[in-house]
Amino acid sequence: MQIVMTAGTRYSFVVSVLVSLAAACGSATAQDFPPDVTRGKAVYERHCLTCHGRGGWGDGPDAAAFTVPPANFHRFKSFLKSDEELLRTIEHGIVFSPMHSWQGQLTETERQDVLAYIRLLVQQGR
Ligand code: HEC
């Protein structure tokens, strides 16, 4: 059998390749646009600052009250972790620690925005 590529079949082949490419890109990242650090800052200041501190050093006003100290995002231990790993922690929390799950309180986009803001804080230093 011989496959004859008419203009019509070629066109539908190109369209199906484009559609599957778009689908692959869409599933690689949860959001189609880069995280918004301005929104991330607002989320951080509202929900995270009391424990993790304004600069992310783990020295927020509530930090002293906990036996498990809030993570200092500037330590190698934290900033070498992948985005996926930190997002998982924000999503699910850490057992036996004051770091509870934020699933339900923050949307997936807000969790990504706040992580982008944490990454920015770490770049800034003291
Ligand atoms: C009540 C205090 C508290 C609040 C509020 C809080 N955290 Fe935490 N967080 C902690 C503690 C404590 C740990 C460290 C737990 C441990 O080391 O076992 C932690 C750990 C983390 C980690 C993991 C760091 C690592 O190195 O693995 C991330 C990421 C994080 N917090 C993000 C956030 C974000 C984002 C918010 C705000 C939406 C937030 N936290 C709010 C107490 C808090």
TrEMBL record:
Q: Which GO terms describe its molecular function?
A: electron transfer activity; heme binding; metal ion binding
Q: Which UniProt keywords apply?
A: Heme, Iron, Metal-binding, Signal
Please indicate if the UniProt record lists Metal-binding as a keyword.
Answer: yes
Q: Does the keyword Iron apply?
A: yes
Q: Name one Pfam family in it.
A: Cytochrome_CBB3
Q: Where's the Cytochrome c domain? A: 35-122
What range does the record give for the signal peptide?
Answer: 1-30
What SUPFAM superfamilies does UniProt report for this protein, alphabetically?
Answer: Cytochrome c
Instruction: State what protein this is by name.
Output: Putative Cytochrome c552
Q: Organism, per UniProt? A: Nitrospira defluvii
